[in-house]
Structure formats: structure tokens, C-alpha cells
Specification:
The chain has twelve helices and 15 strands. By secondary structure, the chain is of the alpha+beta class. GO terms for molecular function: acyltransferase activity.
């Protein structure tokens, strides 16, 4: 178990890592043409995330000629922001205290930070267990979305590495979800690769999906979401790579006995969700009577009535929950847990979404992580996002990861696998002891 040694070196090793990153300059990029004054209120789907942290993504590439690449990225950004100008906005409030995104031509725009970390190589980032060593490659660590009132809604840090470039992005999660994030990233890459315009324009009219004006009296919470992480359990993160063969094996095992009520077979997502939930629950060594909650952030673009286009720009996700006792999850065949996940997803139709929104609007509640539930496994991101197609003209990324923001015990991010096809990368943050048990669980890692 060689890789556990790195977890035991303590913080001194981590601090040396940190000092490897040096900031060279900070500038701002605005849309390439005048847009004028624009305002768009945030809607019920956006508002719960105001006290989450900025959503962080890290992509790293093998390539040289750093300065040239930075200029190319900035040039492409000017063009793509003409369509995605809401990322060059600030948060604001109207006279009634309703949150909105506000754009004006004299605003700063998107923040671009240039940095160097000549001691860090691509291989190190690709192999890294946790995210601690690349924390300084992504801006806005520990910054709440609410701070978008006086900060850019997107900050990009481009860092020159020993043998490549790291691109750390921090997106304000109150204005967009994963689908919109990757729509923007792929559009930006298209422009940098020589396209004159984006192939699919963002659909910017948030109020078409919901137009209830929710007044929030929000100031920064006294203890921001994972600001109290020091008192919490010691978390570790790890990326588990599941090959096509492993994914197929998980799926066929879960589908070996079909669900009793003859509903449809379990999807890849439902099968993998059960697999992770089941094995994390075992690794936590819960008592049979302990509850465990499975949470997923589901895209509602096709679920709302009328459905919204895939290009809808904003948050159109809902957290969906299902719960059972740990003993039931482990004592029953896989169909039991997979059915719970499947039913929760299928029940979240237009009617359920409408009810959830009305309930929230009557008593608005800003999400904090403890709301995810007890002994929780929460799944964000999606292997459907084509993250390895984000090619700015110098090849596909060597790796795509989440930053250290918005992590808690049981948070899972799913990404398209680096090896392509049906492979999936599963990024898990867990209490250190439980993660160590999970790493040793051969039925979980499926070392074929």
C-alpha cells in the first residue's frame, strides 16, 4: 500500500508543494464588442447555491510556448464572452432585493491570472491522489458564490508547468451548473481552435424556466460552508479509474436479477451509483440501523415542463435524495439499492420539480453541506460531459479534476474516463480511515 505514505507526510510536505506556484500577473478580459447594460434575475434553480463555493475545475495539457498560449486563450475569451457575457458580469440585487446578474461595458470582466510552477510536472498531477498538491493551481479557494457581488464570476489561472500548462477555473456556482460550465469550456476551445463563432449559443433567458421573484436577505453566513473543516473529520480524496470492462461488469452484476416490478433495466449511472454507495457504506463500517443517504444533482432541462434546451445557461439542477438503513443496503442484492436510486430519479418529474420549487419559494433555504444528509454519498458532475474534448488547439487534456472547493465527507464527482469509451473516473472525498478501507476493497476497485 505504497500510496498511503504520502498521506502520512503531514502538512510540511504540502506547504512545500504550495510554494512552488508563483503568480506573475493578473489581468481582466471583456467581451470583444460593446454589449450595453444587461440584467437577468437569478431564478429558483440558481439561488440555493449562493453559499456554496465557486465551482473549481482543473485541466492540464502537455505543451510548450506558454506566453503564446496565454495570448491565444485571452483572444478566444474575448470572442466567446460576446455570447457568454453573463460570465463577465457581477452579481447584483434589484430595488426589491432580488438577486440578478448585471452586465455593463465598463465592468472588469473575467479575471485571468498567469503563474509558473516549474517544479510541478504533468505526471505528478495525473497521478495525484488528492487535490492538495494542486490547490494553488486553481483560483478562489474557499470563496463563496455570494462574493460575486464584488468579484468576477469567472477566474481563470493559467500556470506554466515543467512540461505543460495547467488551467484552473473557478466558476460562480450561483449562475451556472455543470452542463453550462462545459458548454462554455467547449465553446471557448472551439474559438481558440480556429472557429469564428460558437456552434451552439447559450440560451440566456433564465426566467423562461421560472419567473418567481424570490427576495433573499442574505449576508455571508457566520460559519461559511466548509470554513469549519478544521473541526471536521480528516478528509482524503482519491481518483478511482473504472475501465470499460469494470463498468460493464458493475452494470451486468446490478442487472443480473431484474427489478421485481419489471421497471426498466438499470442504467450505467444507476449501477455505478449503487456500487459507490454500497462500498462507501461498507467502508464507513456503519451499524445496520444507521441511515445512509444517497444524493444526486440531477439535470432538469428535459424534466421541466416545457422542457428547456440543452444550451440553457444557468443552474437547472435539483438535489434528489433517497435513504435506507445501512444493514438493508448491505444485506439485500444490488437490485435493492439500485432500485432506490432509479425510483428517486424517475419520480423527479415536472410535477415534483414544480412542488419542490413552490415549497422552496415559500421558505427559501440556502444549501449547506450538512443538508446533503447523514452518512451521505452525493454525486455531482457527469460522465456525459465531454471534458476530454476541450482542446484549445494544443491537444486533449492529460487530466480533468475538481478543485478543493465544495467537498465534504461523501462528495463524489464523476468524469468521462481518460481512456475514453464507457470508462469513468470517480473522484471521492472521504474521511481518511474510510477511504483507506475503500482502497483495499477489491470488490470496489475491481482490479480485473
Amino acid at each position: 500500500m505504497g500510496h498511503n505514505c504520502s498521506a502520512l507526510t503531514g502538512d510540511s510536505g504540502k506547504k512545500e508543494e504550495m510554494s512552488k506556484v508563483k503568480i506573475i500577473s493578473t489581468s481582466h478580459v471583456k467581451p470583444g464588442k460593446m454589449i450595453g447594460r444587461k440584467e437577468c434575475q437569478l431564478v429558483t434553480f440558481d439561488l440555493p447555491y449562493l453559499a456554496f463555493h465557486y465551482n473549481q475545475k482543473l485541466l492540464f495539457y502537455k505543451c510548450g510556448e506558454f506566453e503564446e498560449k496565454v495570448e491565444k486563450l485571452k483572444d478566444g475569451l474575448r470572442v466567446v464572452l460576446e455570447e457568454f457575457y453573463q460570465l463577465a458580469d457581477k452579481l447584483g440585487k434589484d430595488e426589491d432585493g432580488v438577486f440578478r446578474v448585471e452586465y455593463d461595458d465598463d465592468m472588469d470582466g473575467v479575471e485571468v491570472v498567469e503563474a509558473t510552477a516549474m517544479e510541478i510536472g504533468i505526471e505528478e498531477l495525473a497521478a495525484e491522489d488528492g487535490t492538495a498538491s494542486f490547490k494553488d493551481l486553481i483560483p478562489y479557494n474557499g470563496v463563496l458564490n455570494l462574493e460575486g457581488l464584488h468579484r468576477p464570476l469567472l477566474s481563470v489561472q493559467v500556470t506554466k508547468l515543467k512540461d505543460g500548462v495547467a488551467m484552473g477555473c473557478a466558476f460562480n456556482h450561483a449562475i451556472l451548473d455543470g452542463t453550462s460550465t462545459w458548454h462554455f469550456m467547449s465553446s471557448w476551445a472551439q474559438i481558440c481552435s480556429g472557429s469564428n463563432s460558437v456552434s451552439v449559443s447559450p440560451f440566456l433567458e433564465r426566467t423562461k424556466v421560472r419567473n418567481t421573484r424570490v427576495k433573499l436577505d442574505l449576508s455571508l453566513p457566520p460559519n461559511p460552508v466548509n470554513g469549519d473543516a478544521d473541526q471536521g473529520p480528516q478528509l482524503r480524496e482519491k481518483l478511482f479509474r473504472f475501465s470499460e470492462a469494470a463498468i460493464d461488469k458493475i452494470k451486468s452484476k446490478v442487472n443480473s436479477t431484474p427489478p421485481s416490478d419489471s421497471s426498466k433495466p438499470f442504467s450505467t449511472f444507476q449501477s455505478l451509483a449503487y456500487h459507490v454507495w454500497h462500498h462507501v457504506t461498507l467502508a464507513r463500517e456503519l451499524k445496520p440501523q444507521d441511515y445512509t443517504v444517497f444524493t444526486l444533482f440531477a439535470d432538469c432541462r428535459k424534466r421541466v415542463d416545457p422542457p428547456m434546451p440543452e444550451s440553457y445557461f444557468g443552474n437547472l439542477i435539483h438535489a434528489i435524495f433517497t435513504v435506507t438503513a445501512a444493514g438493508l443496503l448491505s444485506a439485500n442484492p444490488p437490485q435493492f439499492g439500485a432500485s432506490l436510486v432509479q425510483k428517486a430519479i424517475e419520480a423527479h418529474n415536472a410535477k415534483a420539480i414544480e412542488e419542490r420549487n413552490k415549497e422552496w419559494e415559500a421558505a427559501p433555504k440556502i444549501f449547506e453541506y450538512k443538508d446533503a444528509g447523514v452518512n451521505c454519498v452525493a454525486v455531482g458532475s457527469s460522465p456525459r460531459f465531454k471534458v476530454y474534448d476541450v482542446d484549445f488547439g494544443w491537444g486533449k487534456p492529460e487530466g480533468v479534476r475538481s478543485g478543493s472547493n465544495n467537498r465534504f465527507d461523501g462528495m463524489v464527482y464523476l468524469y468521462q474516463g481518460k481512456s475514453g469509451g464507457r470508462s469513468i473516473d470517480v473522484e471521492i472525498a472521504l474521511e481518511a480511515g474510510a477511504l483507506e478501507k475503500l482502497e483495499k476493497d477489491k470488490e470496489f476497485v475491481l482490479e480485473v
